[in-house]
Structures are given as C-alpha cells and as structure tokens.
Amino acid sequence: MARTICLNLLTTRARSRAELADALARKDVDDDVARRVLDRLGAAGLVDDAAFAEQWVSSRHRHQGLGKRALAGELHRKGVDRETAATAVEEIGRDDERARARALVDRRLPSLARYEHAVAARRLVGMLARKGYDAGVAYGVVREALAERPSPDEADEALDDLLSDPDADHR
C-alpha cells in the first residue's frame, strides 16, 4: 500500500522525500514501513532530493521566472534541506538570473508606458522582489530597461514634432 501511494504520486511529478513521507503519514502508514519504502525507492533512484531540487529550480526559474530567494523558499517548504537547496539554486548563474529578470521587465514594461518612470520603476522592482530577485538585480535591470525607454516628455515631443511638420515623410 505505501509503495503504491508513493508510485502514484511520483507518476505526476518528481517529489522530495519529505513530500512522500508527509503523504504516507496522512494515509496513516506506519513510520517504520514508510521509512523502509522510501529507502527502497531512494536506492532505486526514484526518490532523490538533489535531483528533485535541480529539476524544480530549472523548471520554476525558466517557466515562472522565479529568482533564487523564492526558489530556495519553495524547496525548503517541500522539505529539501538547506544545503541541497542552496546547491541547486546556485546552478542559476548571475547572468541567467539577470537575463530572466530583464525578460520579465520587458514583458511588463509596455503596460506601464502611461506611468512616470518613478511609478513604473516602483512597480517593476516590486514585481521582481515578489518573484524572489535580490534588490541589486532588480534595481539594476529596472534602471537599465527604463533608461532605454523614452520619458513621457520625450515621447510627447517626438509626437509633436511629427505632427507639426506636414511635409515630413510619414512612413
């Protein structure tokens, strides 16, 4: 019964040992039986917290855009020990983290076009903070993205120049 519970859970996605142990405890499986089943599954390579942590970090960083702090927190909540979680999270390089943060900012920036730079910056940094990016990465990426965006005054001036010159080539 305990083996079946674990295998059923493992068919949907990889799980940490602690997640499987919690599931067995909720089904009132004896602790000794649960430990033996989890040890056998570990020996067979079906339960490996290090591999689970690496897979989790890679997937959640790529698809959800989560930063290192958020990923470490999720792994901790899933019962992965701090050392294993830290090793998995460190696989994300500084450049990869900056690139993912920049992609998130670039995707959100058009919806903030009507706001002043200060308001847009506050919202973008807040979004990155909620996704677990550290302040240095968040501020740097937002500053860079906003520097590339014309200020509302510059955009208005360009539009006025375009509209005031009737002989301009409007392609």
From TrEMBL:
Residues covered by region (Disordered): 148-171
Occurrences of domain RecX first three-helical (ranges): 2-41
Family: Belongs to the RecX family.
Protein name, entry field: Regulatory protein RecX
Positions of the RecX second three-helical domain: 48-88
Annotated compartments: Cytoplasm
Summary of the function given for this chain in its UniProt record: Modulates RecA activity.
Biased composition (Acidic residues): 153-171
Annotated source species: Actinomycetospora chibensis
Pfam families: RecX_HTH1, RecX_HTH2, RecX_HTH3
Keywords per UniProt: Cytoplasm
InterPro entries assigned to the protein according to its UniProt record, in alphabetical order: RecX_HTH_1st (IPR053926), RecX_HTH_2nd (IPR053924), RecX_HTH_3rd (IPR053925), Regulatory_RecX (IPR003783), WH-like_DNA-bd_sf (IPR036388)
Major localization class: cytoplasm
Keyword Cytoplasm in record: yes
Domain RecX third three-helical residue range list: 96-139
Lineage: Bacteria, Bacillati, Actinomycetota, Actinomycetes, Pseudonocardiales
